[in-house]
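User: New here, please read:
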Amino acid sequence: MAPKNRPKKKAKRASAKSKKTTGKADTQKKSAKKSKKAKRGGKAKVARSRSAYMIYISECRTEVLQRKGLQEGKVDFAEASRILGQAWNDLAAPEKTIFEALAAVDKHRVVLAGLSVRGRADAPAVAAALQSALASLGRAPAAAGPSGIAAELLDAMEALDARMPFTLRAALAPLLNAGPDAATLGHVHRSFGRELSARLAAVLQRWHGRPLYAAARPSGASASASSSAALVAAPPSAGGGASTAAASSAGGASGASGASGGG
């Protein structure tokens, strides 16, 4: 019996394989184009902002259920929702205000991710959004640290900076006001720690085009006097006279305190 001729089947298989390879290549090209677009200044994808109630649930769910003698994972969804809703309604106003403040900070994370940063024309909108986000971060409650909301907003700022072209970053410097930024740095340093304040100082330095310095905070009684100026912006000066004068005045003050201590 003569062997069957199967050239058509082989040709079909080769054609199907070719289409599959081509389709995969097209998908990779589209993905690369989207990634390139995001790098150039396109809007980034980000999770939706959370309400005060959503943040309360994520932070306090286990504790609330345990107070009712219930164990996480062994309680009906409807029952858990009812208990959590009642606990939120019964929450004291000062405690509820903290979660509302956290939600206000989290909204800026989404706003920054949705900004267009294609060129100099976007600078006014970007500067306004950044100033609003920085002001919110400067008022954020201490709970924004453990909850991760402060860190997530800094992530959004760093991601925004990574998407910015050089021309836009250069146009931001005259639009941003250094005063509130220095106050925000001080608040972040005191409330959320050195690591987050260093990250914030780094992006602010790129946007302002000059460094923002961290002032040393001595221990003991003098620490409270300097805590309000933990991190300050250093304005540019031709001969460095302002910074020299500030240093000499600080040295004079420490010398005077040393003399009084010695006396």
About this structure: Residues 31-39, 214-263 have pLDDT under 50 and may be disordered.
